Amino acid sequence: LSIISWFVRSFKYVYGLRFEVRGQKKLEVDGPCVIISNHQSILDMMGLMEILPKRCVQIAKRELLFTGPVGLIMYLGGVYFINRQRARTAMSVMADLGDLMVKDNLKVWIYPEGTRNDNGDLLPFKKGTIRVQVLDAVPTRGLTDADVTKLVDTCYQSMRNTFLQISKMPQENSAIEPGVVSAQ
Hints:
Layout: H1 2-15, E1 18-22, E2 33-37, H2 42-50, E3 56-61, H3 69-76, E4 80-82, H4 87-104, E5 107-110, E6 129-134, H5 148-168, E7 179-183
Parallel strand pairs: 1-6, 2-5, 3-4, 3-5, 6-7
Antiparallel strand pairs: 2-7
């Protein structure tokens, strides 16, 4: 993880990025949890790396492993890669990671949207402040498989409402990349 942190600090310095973080203390939960985050551009990943809690691993799509230096940095940083084209393999990795979460008291960070952009092009680079809002934890104790659909909808609605609210706030340098984080 230190190699990813070094890369983020260097990138941040070179491009003059500043991060505005609200609610970071909410990520200081004792037990294992899943942290879900939206993903608008590469900049919000940089902002999220600033608040990555201890004992936290990230999950990324396998294709990112082959993106040159970024893929290498992610690999060396301990990111878990899943092959979204092979559901059985992805489910196996997720199940193993679930076991590790409980055994080793890990937090797992995921991006449930699956991608940052669907127009097939790179988003423009921006300079300025990245705003990150950490939401309250969503309790899952006692939930079963039957509760998954409702849990997903609850998290989605909470994140969407916050995202829309952040997006309406005045933007410094017109370069705010809203990021919403929820731990469950």
